[in-house]
């Protein structure tokens, strides 16, 4: 079993709340708009991190991370990118990539809007957008997702809300 903390859109901001939740996970996954490598460095002091770059990330972050990550966690195939859209309204080229890869979980950020949904048209795909964990943006609450994966099952999916 793996416990995951899912964050996005930190925009260079990391605080003790993010780090405290990271400490209770086995891995942290970051869905882009990291902002600065110091965010990654602080989290990596506590737990391993997987990340993709986002549209605000500069050369330093883009040279350290890819635009998409596709990997297996337990027995689930995971696809992470920053700009992904939503089931029925995917960003350009995303639906084709999802159909080619057929992941079990699709993760993106960018919108600063927390959303969990299924795409029954694509492998009953679980779509996760953790919202924004940073302070920059229009969101009123900072949000993250925490869940566990055991085999092919996702358990204990929790929304973490933090005052902005």
Polypeptide structure, described:
The protein is 18% helix and 40% strand. The chain is α/β, with parallel strands linked by helices. It has a single domain, classed as Metallo-dependent phosphatases (Purple Acid Phosphatase, chain A, domain 2, 4-Layer Sandwich), CATH 3.60.21.10. The strands form 3 sheets. A 5-stranded mixed β-sheet has the order 3-2-1-11-12, covered by helices on one side. Strand 2 (27-30), helix 2 (37-44) and strand 3 form a beta-alpha-beta unit. The protein is globular and about 40 Å long. The termini are far apart.
Q: Span from first to last CA?
A: 32 Å
What characterizes the major β-sheet?
Answer: 5 strands, mixed
Look at the structure and give the mean pLDDT. 96
CATH topology: Purple Acid Phosphatase, chain A, domain 2
Describe the SSE topology.
Blueprint: E1 2-7, H1 16-23, E2 27-30, H2 37-44, E3 49-51, H3 59-64, E4 68-73, E5 76-81, E6 85-86, E7 89-90, H4 94-101, E8 105-107, E9 114-119, E10 125-130, E11 141-150, E12 153-163
Parallel strand pairs: 1-2, 2-3, 5-8, 8-10
Antiparallel strand pairs: 1-11, 4-5, 6-7, 9-10, 11-12
What is this entry, summarized?
This protein is of the alpha/beta class and 164 residues long. 18% of the residues lie in helices and 40% in strands.
Keywords:
164 residues; alpha/beta; Purple Acid Phosphatase, chain A, domain 2; five-stranded mixed beta sheet; 4 helices; 12 strands; 40% strand
């Amino acid at each position: 079993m793996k416990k995951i903390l899912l964050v996005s859109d930190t925009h260079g901001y990391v605080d003790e709340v993010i780090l405290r939740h990271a400490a209770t996970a086995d891995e942290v996954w970051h869905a882009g708009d990291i902002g600065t490598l110091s965010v990654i460095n602080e989290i990596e002091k506590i737990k391993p991190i997987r990340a993709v770059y986002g549209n605000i990330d500069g050369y330093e972050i883009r040279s350290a991370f890819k635009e998409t990550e596709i990997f297996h966690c337990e027995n689930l195939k995971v696809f992470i990118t920053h700009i992904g859209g939503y089931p029925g309204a995917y960003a350009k080229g995303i639906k084709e990539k999802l159909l080619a890869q057929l992941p079990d979980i699709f993760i993106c950020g960018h919108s600063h809007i927390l959303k969990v949904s299924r795409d029954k048209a694509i492998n009953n795909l679980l779509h996760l957008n953790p919202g924004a964990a940073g302070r920059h943006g229009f969101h009123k609450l900072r949000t993250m997702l925490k869940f566990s994966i055991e085999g092919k099952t996702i358990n204990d999916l929790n929304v973490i809300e933090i005052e902005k």
